[in-house]
Design goal:
By secondary structure, the chain is an alpha/beta fold. The protein has 2 domains: about 325 residues, Glycoside hydrolase, family 3, N-terminal domain (TIM Barrel, Alpha-Beta Barrel), CATH 3.20.20.300; about 130 residues, 3-Layer(aba) Sandwich (Rossmann fold). The protein has 16 helices and 15 strands. The strands form 4 sheets. Strands 10-15-14-13-11-12 form a 6-stranded mixed sheet. The longest helix is centred in the middle third of the chain and has 20 residues. It is globular.
């Protein structure tokens, strides 16, 4: 069998930015699939069908639909974050999240979803994991991730555990830098590696992380994603036999340190199969073909990788009920979105009483109400009978109740998950002035470590989360979730 290493290259395609003609050229070159970003669901469905019709071998389209298609695709159903599901503790809702995501993804031609994140939320300053994690308890992460994977699989979609061997302990974003994990092997074995070990037999794929992990790879110049330890620990020790993809090769943790061909060669020799999102996919595909011809060891690794890619594709060839665009963002899924958001609420510190009839509302990072991310939350408070006055962050009426909306969430390439010192001081000052205060977090729960005030965690910023948060604070629904992370 001829080795065609170009199939191991999975370029990105960003709707509105990349030229479809370039994608067609890459298909002709023989790439194995595309990682999709952005777009509207009908647009994506047309695009994937067009490229499949052009390809000599079936393509595998993938995307980071961690919280449903709406994570990247307009028109998909927005679903609660993993940390919200951690608060619910519900395997049924974890399964439903996977099921809805899988059904909608399949409807638009995407059969590989890069989820669930099984990193542990054990580092409050981590700028890139946080609410993407189910929590800080490995056992709960395993339980909920297993249910989510089953939901994806039942819809004929491949899931992906990420980011091996665990990105939870970092305080840097690997999109910007190369983080160092200082934990010993024993510490990793007892925590970070647990989800990967326990789920190795059910996970369709695993994504490796761009990290320095001396406990597993002694050479501190070698990112784990390019390390031979992938084969030793993930495959040999944990027994994982499925598809392994690198994290995106265009991230600065890799791009600032290695030429793409060298990074790809190291990754394949180390045990990876898919070379995800290179900056120059056409060049890489051509150079890789030449490199494989000249290097027997690389040829052997590429052959094994292609075999695993074929096996992953074959695993998706199971009889399934038909699905079309009518299922994407449908009424049934929107109802599930609302029900899911409700079970994901939790009190980090329960306020003494429900909201009064009048409150002042402030978002620390918004310059004016026009910039509020919590506009729907305020709207739902008003519908519930609460008069809401905008707060400018400088002054309050005497006796006012202050509600602060917090939207700190992990976002690639920002390296930020907490308020800066100036903003934190401003928050503390207003909390002292207000007669009564509470924080509503639609993102990171760790904001409550900085401010000793009561409040509510919704863990997501979608409209459903804002709706149920308003309902809970006005006594319309009960808050039944439990905090999935320990707060200081």
């Amino acid at each position: 069998m001829a080795v065609t290493p170009a199939r191991l290259v999975f370029p990105s395609f960003q709707f509105g930015l990349h030229d479809p003609k370039t994608a067609l050229r890459l298909v002709d070159l023989g790439v194995g699939g595309f990682c999709l970003y952005g777009g509207e669901v009908k647009e994506i469905a047309v695009f994937t069908a067009r490229l499949q019709g052009r390809a000599a071998k079936p393509l595998l389209f993938c995307a980071d639909y961690e919280d449903g298609l709406a994570s990247h695709a307009a028109g998909g159903t927005p679903l609660s974050s993993n940390m919200g599901l951690g608060a619910s503790g519900s395997e049924d809702w974890a399964y439903r999240k996977g099921e809805i995501t899988g059904l909608e993804a399949r409807a638009i031609g995407v059969r590989w979803v890069f989820a669930p994140v099984v990193d542990l939320a054990n580092q409050p300053d981590n700028p890139i994991v946080n609410t993407r994690s189910f929590g800080d308890d490995p056992k709960q992460v395993v339980r909920l991730a297993r249910a989510y994977l089953r939901g994806l699989k039942d819809q004929g979609v491949l899931g992906c555990l990420k980011h091996f061997p665990g990105h939870g302990r970092t305080v840097k974003d690997s999109h910007l830098d190369l983080p160092l994990i200082k934990a010993s092997r024993a510490e990793l074995e007892g925590s970070d590696l647990v989800p990967f070990r326990e789920l190795a037999d059910v996970a369709g794929s695993v994504m490796t992380a761009h990290l320095i992990v001396p406990a597993l790879e002694r050479d501190r110049k070698v990112p784990y994603s390019l390390s031979a330890d992938v084969d030793k620990t993930l495959r040999a020790a944990l027994g994982f036999e499925g598809l392994v993809t690198t994290d995106a090769l265009n991230m600065r943790a890799i791009a600032d340190r290695f030429r793409e061909l060298e990074a790809s060669r190291r990754a394949l020799l180390g045990g990876a199969d898919v070379l995800l999102v290179p900056a120059e996919p056409e060049r890489l595909a051509r150079e890789l073909e030449d490199a494989v011809r000249k290097d027997k060891a690389l040829e052997s690794s590429a052959t094994q990788a292609l075999s695993r890619l074929d096996a992953a594709q074959e695993s998706l060839n199971v009889p399934l009920p038909g699905v079309d665009m009518v299922h994407v963002g449908c009424a049934d899924h929107r109802l599930a979105e609302m029900q899911m958001a409700e079970v994901c609420l939790a009190w980090p510190r329960k306020p003494e009483a429900q909201l009064p009839s009048e409150v002042a509302y402030w978002e620390p990072e918004a310059d004016s109400p026009d910039d509020w991310l919590g506009g729907k939350f305020v709207e739902f408070l008003k519908i519930a009978g609460v008069r809401v006055e905008p707060c400018d962050g400088r002054s309050l009426k005497k006796g006012a109740t202050l509600v602060i909306g917090c939207f700190l969430s992990p976002r690639a390439y920002t390296g930020k998950i907490a308020y800066d010192k100036k903003t934190a001081a401003k928050i503390s000052k207003l909390l002292k002035i207000a007669a009564r205060s509470l924080i509503v977090s639609f993102g990171s729960p760790f904001v409550f470590e900085s401010f000793t005030v009561g409040g509510l965690c919704a863990f997501s910023r979608n409209e459903a989360a804002q709706h149920v948060a308003a309902a809970a604070l006005t006594g319309k629904i009960a808050v039944k979730g439990r905090m999935p992370v320990a707060l200081k």
